């Protein structure tokens, strides 16, 4: 046999976070680090013998090396077949779509998403289950438990596979099929949206600009927008995936997608702009001189879903993560559909989508998606918006401001304090947790606390409980402040402060967001003593 069993010792830090295991590339390059985690995944799967799995990543530095190692380990762990994306490439939503279309057992997705890439950047790995979605906590915990006691891993001694040619190969008994990672995804998009009507829009006077931020969606966006939808070549900017994302931070927000922001807020701005992140699951939507908050985007898509062929019969329900604004809740109420509030991270939407309780899902962190896959999906959101614009003939700004006139406006912003010292950040959270039970009824200036808790979620489908998901403080006027620590960062801790206020009066919708939220921003400091615990006077990123 060519299977080697290699002795190893555990690493204590292989606990998956909000979306898989994310660490600096140099951490993954330690001898046995990747192997230990991959063996812990294979060891935790039941019934994977002879099964098909999907494998691909966002193309960042170390993607190719990791894929070669995982293929050889899969062969040694009795996997029957691996479908791997050409060049090792697969966006996160495409991986989800491919797992579902091929009825695969699961998949391994290599990505650190919006974290910078390159030798000095980050790398990541996560496991997705049969429904195409991120493994639920039960499985990620089992993987972590195994990683703490691992003694050996199995690997097949074989040559590297040529990832750049569509073909079917073998490693021992296992088949490796190198597939086109774009075609199945593009087809799925064509089945959901009115491509003819979007094509007509894009070939007229309407101008759009798509920023792929040198990351994985470049390949997808060129095929879909430039080829299939006939938008001019050059519509996709930063469209060649690079291992270090051109040195940038592939996070589609007003701070990091500045190339695109400069264009949409500059002279002769196009009608529509969009960006996506490292692994293609996030999206930012811009109009001419106009920014759509992700929370508003979810609400707008929900309100207009029946304009889109894939959703013409209406929605089962809508789901949003807890820190996401309540804008979608108001739409759900009007439509008479259920609205679910889940902890942060896409893994919590899977059960709701599988059970036909929700059709659309969204997070404030530039994530939107639906039951077409089990991940959030950046280009899907862009196409959804284009389909709405094509159907209504309205501008992005008109759609959003008219939406506010009907439902009121939820002013919303997130303040991130990145890479602060871990211990004091945890103390800040512990202090808040200790405070919540005494807060209701308390008065702060003009605000009275309505409720305060550390969010706990009981999954309505399988009854599983997830505790300590973030401290939320709601006020009697409908405003809210949420505090939580990031589960995707790789340096120190990142404190996220989520701020929201509600304004029903259309005459007051034109105020600058940070200005509208100023009293709450001050209140967040007063309650949480952010400066004292983090030594930071200002957040590092405001979205
Ligand atoms: C962040 C976002 C969360 C998102 C997660 C993964 O998590 O806040 O909404 O689901 O990233 O997105 P955290 O724990 O750092 O707040 V991605 O595009 O990085 O897979
Ligand atoms: Co992502």
What does the model show?
Belongs to the phosphohexose mutase family. One of its GO terms (cellular component) is cytosol. Its EC number is 5.4.2.2. The structure is a single chain. With 543 residues, this protein is an alpha/beta fold. The protein has three domains: 179 residues, Alpha-D-Glucose-1,6-Bisphosphate, Chain A, domain 3; 223 residues, Alpha-D-Glucose-1,6-Bisphosphate, subunit A, domain 3 (Alpha-D-Glucose-1,6-Bisphosphate, Chain A, domain 3, 3-Layer(aba) Sandwich); 134 residues, Alpha-D-phosphohexomutase, C-terminal domain (TATA-Binding Protein, 2-Layer Sandwich). The protein has 18 helices and 27 strands. The strands form six sheets. Strands 2-6-5-3-4-9-8 form a seven-stranded mixed β-sheet, with helices on both faces. A seven-stranded antiparallel β-sheet has the order 20-21-24-25-26-19-27. Strands 11-10-12-13-14 form a five-stranded mixed β-sheet, sandwiched between helices. Strand 25 and strand 26 form a beta hairpin. Helix 10 packs parallel to helix 11. The longest helix is centred in the last third of the chain and has 15 residues. The radius of gyration is 23 Å and the shape is globular. The termini are far apart. The model has no long low-confidence stretch (mean pLDDT 96). The site of alpha-D-glucose-1-phosphate-6-vanadate has 19 residues, from loops.
In short:
The mean pLDDT is 96. By secondary structure, this protein is of the alpha/beta class. GO terms for molecular function: magnesium ion binding; phosphoglucomutase activity.
